[in-house]
Queue: 3 jobs
Job 1
Amino acid sequence: MFDDRSPIYQQIADKIKKDILYGDLSAGDQVMSTNQYASFYRINPATAAKAFQQLTDEGYLYKRRGIGMFVSDDAQAQLRQQRREHFFADVVAPMVAEAKAIGITLDEIIHHLTNKDGTPGESRD
Amino acid sequence: MEPPVSLGIEVRDLRLQYGDVAALDGLSFSLSGGKIYGLLGRNGSGKTSLLSILAAFRRKTSGTVHIGGQEPFENERVTAEVCLIRESGGDVYDNTRLEQLLRMAADLRPAFDHQYALKLADRFQLPMRKNVQSLSRGQRSALGAVMGLAANARLTMFDESYLGMDAPSRYAFYDELIANYTENPRTFIISTHLIEEVARLFEEVLIIHKGRLVLHDDVEAVRSRGVSVIGPAEVVDTFTAGLTVLNGQSLGRTKAVTVYGTLDDDQRRAAALAGLELGPVSLQDLFVHLTGQPEAEAAR
C-alpha cells in the first residue's frame, strides 16, 4: 500500500490528487474522514490528518465544519494545469532518455504513438 | 464525553542500576501525551526497565520521573491511571478462568470496560472458560492485548507483549488499537524491536540504546532524515565529507552509504550532477544503523 520512498502523508495526498485528476473524485464529493483513513490503512490518525491538512492548504479540499471534507470546485482544473507544466520534464524526458539508451529512435516512438487505431505498435527486435 | 486531559511524561537523568550494570544510564525525554509513541531499542537496551519504572513496578536508582507532574512510585493516584502489559503476563492469575479474570479487572479498575473486553476476547477467539495457564503463547499475548485496550488507562503501555501473537492476530490488534485510540485519544507507548510492521501506527518514536536516548522525534520527520547515497566510491566519499555517515558498503567500485540528516535542494542537485543516486532509508534500517554494531563487534 505504502512504500518507503516518501512520507506516508505525502503518499496519501498524492493518491487523493490522482483520484481527483482522473475523475474518481469529483468537485463537491466528500472524501473519507481522517479516522476512516487511519483505520482503513492502519496508520496513525495524525499522519492521515497531515495529508488532509496539506490538501486543504493547497486548496484541493475544503472543510465543512462538523460535516467533513470535500473536493474543491477547481481542484481538477488546478491539478491539470500543474501536471501539464511538468509533463515534458517529468514524463517525456525520462522516456526519451531511456529510448536513447536502448537504441529506440524518435521515429519509432512517433510511429508507435500514431498507429491508426491508437493501440500500441508491434514491438521490434 | 469530554476528552481526558493527556498525561505528560517527564524523565530527567533517569538511572537504574543492577549491581554494576546500568540498565538506564542518564535517560532524559519529555512527552506531551495524547499520542501513540513507539519505543524502539535492541534487546537489553532498557525498554522494559523504563516501562517498569513508569508503571511503578520498579523503583528507580536516581533521576526524575513525572507522570502528569507526579512521581509514580507508590503513588496510587498515578498508578490508577497507568496500565503496563508485559511479555510474561500475571502468573498470579494462572489458575483463574478468563471470564473471572475479566470480571476481576472490571471490579478492581473503575475505568475497565468489561463489555468491550468481552467483545475483544471474542474477536481474538479466546476460550473464556479456560484457565490462564492453559493458554498458548499466542493466546496469552492476545489476552494482554484485551486487558491493555479495555483498561482504558490514560497511559497504556505494551511491552512487546503483542509480538507473541501470529500475524492475523497482530493485525487485528493494530486495527483495534487504532479504532480505540480514535474513539478515545490518550497516551500509548508501544515498545518493539520489530519496527516495519508497527511504524505506521506511531506519531512519535523514541530510540534508546544502552540505557540512553538516541533519538526522539515525529516519525515522519525521522523517516525523511535518512538518505542513502550510491555511486562511485571516490565521488561518494567527496560528497559525504562533513556529513554524518552511519554505515557504508562497497561492491566493486560502487559504494553505498547511509547519511543521517536532511539534504537541502542544493546538496540534492549537486549529488545528481555528480551522478550519485539518492534514496530513502526505512525506519528499520535507520534504527539498525543508529543502534550500532552487531553484538559480536560491540563486545570486542
Job 2
Amino acid sequence: MPDSATLEAVNIDQDEGNFSYPEDYAHDAGYGLNEGTVDYISNIKGEAEWIREFRHKALKVFFAKPMPTHWASKDLENIIFNDIRYYLSKGQTPTRNWDEVPDDVKKTFERLGIPEKERKFLAGVEAQFDSEAAYSNVKEELTKEGVIFVNSTEGLREHPEIFRKWFGKVIPTGDNKFSALNSAVFSGGSFIYVPPGVKVKHPLQAYFRINAENFGQFERTLIIVDEGAEVTYMEGCTAPKFETATLHSAVVELVAMKDAKIQYITVQNWSNNVFNLVTKRGIAHENAEIRWIDCNIGSRLTMKYPGVIMKGRKARGEVISIALSNNGQHQDTGAKMIHAADETTSNIVAKSISVGTGQSTYRGQVHIPRHLKGCKNNTECDALLINSSSRTDTYPAITVRGNQHATQHEASVSQVSEDQIFYMKQRGLSEGEAMSLSVNGFVNDLVREFPMEYSVELKRLIDMEMEGSVG
Amino acid sequence: MSQSLKIENLHATVDGTEILKGLTLEVPKGEVHAIMGPNGSGKSTLSKVMAGHEAYTVTEGTVMLDDINLLELAIDERSRAGFFLAFQYPHEIPGVSNANFLRAARQARLPKGEEVDAVAFYKEMYLKMDELGMDRKFTGRSVNEGFSGGEKKRNEILQMMMLEPKYAVLDETDSGLDIDALKIVAQGVNSMRSPERGFLIITHYQRLLDYIVPDVVHVMFDGRIIKTGGKDLALELEEKGYDWVTKELVPA
C-alpha cells in the first residue's frame, strides 16, 4: 500500500466530497480473512469467550455459504476477500469530550461540511472514525434516564445482561453470507438501550467514514427500545474515493418492545468503488412501530432491504427509501415486511433515480400468512430515469394468503420531460440546476421525512450527483 | 448601443419544414408590440425560437437583444440576459414549490458566492402575489401542478414580475382566461410597462389588447409579418376577420 505522503498527494483536489487524510493506525489485522484474523480482533478487543466463539462459528458459516449471485448481481464475484483488511483501529478508547477528539478527526468533520449548528448535535453523537468510535458522548440527561449509548465492544463487555439476549437474534448469523461475514469480524457500530417509558427527545447520531484503502467496515448495531419508549437514530456516511474496491457490510438489529417506537434514519453517500452489503431488520412487538428511513447515494453496488417482523398484534412497520444510482453504480434496494400477528400494518414507499448508466432495482417482499386477520400493506415504488442509458427494475413479491387482509401496490416509471427542463432553463436555470431541481422535486415528499439538517445535506448530495449528469 | 429586441429575416424549420420564412420586426425598449395572426401562422414557433427550443433550427437571420446576439446563447443564458417567455402552456414541476423555483431562478442571476436574501425575497414575492390576487398558499404548492388555466397564467406573470426581464414575450397569455383573470393579468403587465422594458404580445384575439393597449400591432401570416400598424389595426382585424388578411394582404 502507498505511504501516507503518496496517499495525501493522490487525494488532494479530488472532486468535492471525495477526500481522505493520511492514516495512522495503531492496530491493523493485515490483509485477508482466516481464523487468525478473528482471533486478532477478539484479542485486541479483550472479548469474552462467548463472543470469540460466536465469531468463529460465523466465519465457518461465511465460508460455507455461496454468493447469492443466482438472484443478485454477478458483480459480487468481483469482491476479493483476501485483498481486504478486516480490522483497523486508532487504538483509542472512545472519548466523551469534544476537546479530546483528535484534530485530524475534527478536520474530517469539517470537510464533511457539517455546519456549526449541526456540530452541536454531536453532543449526543457516536462518531465512528474507521472501525472504532473516535468520539462518543451521551448527553448527561440520557445517562440520567438510563439510556445506554455505546459502541459494540463496550456494549457486549459492559452490558451483556441487556444486549446478549437479542444479539444475533433478529438477524441470525446464517441469514445470508454477509451477515455471517459481519458476525465474524464486526467492530464499531452502536449499541443502544432505552428503558421503559423513556422518550429520547434528540435523535442519536452516528457519523461513519471509511478511510483506509481496501479496508472493509463491519459495524454492528443493536438497538433495544423497551416498553413504551421511543428513540430516533441517525447515521450518515461519506467515503473518500480510492482506486480499489472497498467492502462495507453492516448488520443492524432493532428490537421494539410493546408500545415502543424506533425510527432509524440513514443517509449514505459511498464512493463508487464501495460494495455496500447491509442487513437491517427489526422486530416489532405488540403495538410497536419501526420505521426505516433510508437514503442510498453512490457505491458500486448496494444491496439493502430493511425489514420489519411484526410479531405482536397491531405492530407497524414502515420503509421510506430513496436510492440514487449514477454511472457504474447499482442500487439494489427494497424492503421486507413480515406480518406475524393480527392487525399488523406495513407501508413501503420507495423512490429511485437512475442517472447515466446507473441501475436501480427495487426488491420487495411482503408476507401475510393465511391464519392472520386484519393485516394491511401499502407498497408504492416510483422510478425516475434521467438518461436513455439509465435502467430500473422492479421485483415486488407480495404474498398474501387468506381473505381478511388489505393490500395495495402502485408502481411507476417516469422520465424528466424535455419540456419541463426547457421551461426551467427559460427561467435562467442551467441544465444541471434544472435537473437537480426536478430530481429533488421527485423525492421531495420523502425528503420531508428526514430531519431538517439531513434533508439539507441530502439536497446537496443530489445536486452534486446531478452536476455531471448533463451536457 | 441599441435599445431594442430586433428580429431580422428570421428563418426557422422544425423537422425540415420551414415555419418562419424571413420574419422581421423590432420592439424598442419602452414599447408594447402585439403580434396577431390566424392559427398556424407561426406565432408560437416565433416565441419558442427566440427562447431557444431545441426542436427548432434557425436557418437564417438574427435576433438581437440590445447588443447581444440572442441566437448564440444557450436557453438559460438568454433568460439571464433579460429575455422572458410567458408560456402558452406552462409546464408543471412536481415536488418543486413555487417559492423554491422562483428563488432558484433569482439565485441563478447572482454572481457566484452571493445568496438570495430570503427575507427580502419573500417580502417582494408576497407583494407581487397580492398585486395579482394570488393566495399565499401558492408559494408552497408545486409549480403549476393542479393549477387552473387562469392560475397558471397568473403564475407566469408573477415569474415575469420577479425576474424583471428587459424584454418579455407573452405567448397567447389570454387563452383560457375568463374576463376577471384577464383583467388581473393585464394589470400585472401594465404595472411592468417601463421605458426600460419592451413587450411582445402574441395573441389570436383582440380582447387582451383592450386591457394591454399596444403601441404597435403586427399581423403575421405564413411565417412573416405582412402588415404593421397602430393599435387600431387590431380592431380592424377583429372586425374584418383573418380572411381579410389572407385574401387582401397576401399577394397572390
Job 3
Amino acid sequence: MRNISPKTAQKIAMAGIWAGGAVTVGILLLIVIYVLLRGIPSLSIDFLFTAPKGGLSGDGGISTIIVSTVYLIGTTLIILVPVGIGAAIYLAEYAPSNKFTGVIRYGVEVLAGVPSIIFGLFGFALFVTALHFKFSILSGALTLVCILLPTMIRTTEEAIKGVPQAYREGALALGATRWQTISRVVIPAAMPGVITATILCIGRAIGETACLYVTMGGSAAMPSSLLSGGRTLSLQVFYLAMETRALDKAMATAAVLILIIIIVNTFTTWLAHRFYARMGGNV
Amino acid sequence: MKIKKFGEKIPQSLFFIIALSALSVLALITVFILIEGVPLISKVGVFKFLFGMKWAPSLGQYGIFPMIVGTVFVTTGAIILGVPIALCCSIFLAEFAPKKISNLVRPAIQLLAGIPSVVYGFWGLIFIVPFIRNYMGGPGLSILAGSIILAIMILPTIISISEVSILALPPLLKEGAFALGATHWQTIRGVLLPAAKSGILASIILGIGRAVGETMAVIMVLGNAVALPKSILDPARTLTTNIGIEMGYASGEHQQALFATGIVLLVIIMILNASAQYAIRRK
C-alpha cells in the first residue's frame, strides 16, 4: 500500500518535527556540556591570572590574553557605540522614506552578510598596511568596528523605534524642538535597548576570530599600547589547538568563552524583556 | 528663531553623515579588495585563475579551482545535513512547541548562534574528527567533518528566519485548512509551508552564505590540502581557509592572489545575499 492515511502521516510528521527540535537542543547541550565538563577542571584563579609562556608548549595561563581582549573590545566600543547610535537615530528619526534611505539600509544589510575573513583582508590592506598601524590591537579594533556596525545600527534602530509615538508627541506638544525631543526624551527612553545592543556587540566581538587572525598579529605578550599586537580569547583557543599540544588549556579557554557568552546572552535577554515590557506597559 | 532653526539642522546633517558609515565601509571594502586583487587576476587570466588546478605560490601558479570545489562540497554537505533539522525545528517552534518548551528552545538557539566559531572548530577537532578517523576511515580531517560543523553553525540562521516567516502568516490560512478537515500536518505541508516558501528559501540562502563565509572552524577540521577531493572523507580547502591560512606569511604576488581569492568569495556572497533579498521581496 503506497497511500499512507492522513492520520499516519500526521503521526510520522509529528515525530520528525519534534525530533528536529530535540536534535537542535541536543547538539547544543552536547557541545556546551562537553566543553564545560572537560574545561572547567583545568580552570583556576591561577590560570586566569598567569601569563601564557607562548611558543609551542602552551604552558601558563591567560592573563595577557584577557588584557588584550579587554583593550580590543574597549577600543572597539569607543568608536562603535557613538557611530552606531548616530546612524540609528538618523534612520529611525530623520530619514525620509525615499530611494536614498533605501540605499543606506541596503548597505547595512549587505555589510551584515560579508564574511569575517573579507573584513580581515580589508583591515589588513587599510589599517595594517596603508595606515601603518601594523599588526596591532588598534588595527583589530577598527576592523571589528566595521564588522559590528550593522548589528549595532539595526539593534539600536529597533530600540529607538520601540519608544512609543506618544512620547514624541508629548514632547513636541510641550514646544520642544525635534532635536530636544530626540536627545531628552527618545534616547533616554531607548537607553536600555541601546545597552542591549552594546552588550550584543560585545558578545559578537568576543566570538570573532577570522578578521582578527589577519590583523592583530597574535602576540601572547602583555600589550603595552594599542599599537602592540595581541591575542583574544578566541585566537588563543585557535593557537593552542592548532600549534601546541596543550589541549587541556585550549579546552579551559573555550570553557571561559562559553561561560562569557552564556552570561552575555542571559543579560541581553533579561534587559530586552524589561525594556519591551516597560515600553509596552506605558502606551 | 533663526538660531534655533540652525541648531536643529546641525544634528540632522551630522547624523546623516554618520549614517553613511556602513555604506562607506562597504564601498571601501570593495575598492581595497579590487585594487589588491584585480592586477593578479588580469595577469594570470580570469579563466586560468578560476579553473586552474594548481595552486603553487612559490612557482607563481595560482589556480583556485580545488578551493572552489572544496567550498561547494563542504557547503552542500552542510545544507544536506542542516536544512532538514533546521526546518523541522522551525516548524516545531512555530506550530507545536508548548510555550514552556519554546521558552527553553529559543534561548538555546540564541546560544548556538553566539558560541564562537573557534569553539565549534575545536570541538569538531577533538570530537568529530577522531570519530570519523576511527569509525569511517581516512585522516578524519575531512569534508565530512567540515560539513557537520557547518551544518550545526547554520542551524540558528535557518531556524530563526524560517520560524519568523511561518509565524508571520495570517491565522486565517490555518483556520481555513482546519475548517476543511485537514490534519495539522496536511495544513502545514499543503498550506503553511507553501505560503512561507519565500521566507524559508531566504533563510536557506542566508545559511549557505554563512557556510561559504565561515573560516576558522573550517580551518580546524578540514585538513586544508590543496587537491581535488575524491570522497567526503578526504581533506580539502575552501576559498575562506585559503585566505586565512596563507595570509600570515604571504607577500607580493602571493598576497595579491589571496586578495583575488577574496574577490571570488565576495562575488559569491553578494550573489547569495541578493538572491535572499529577492526571495524575501518577491512576496
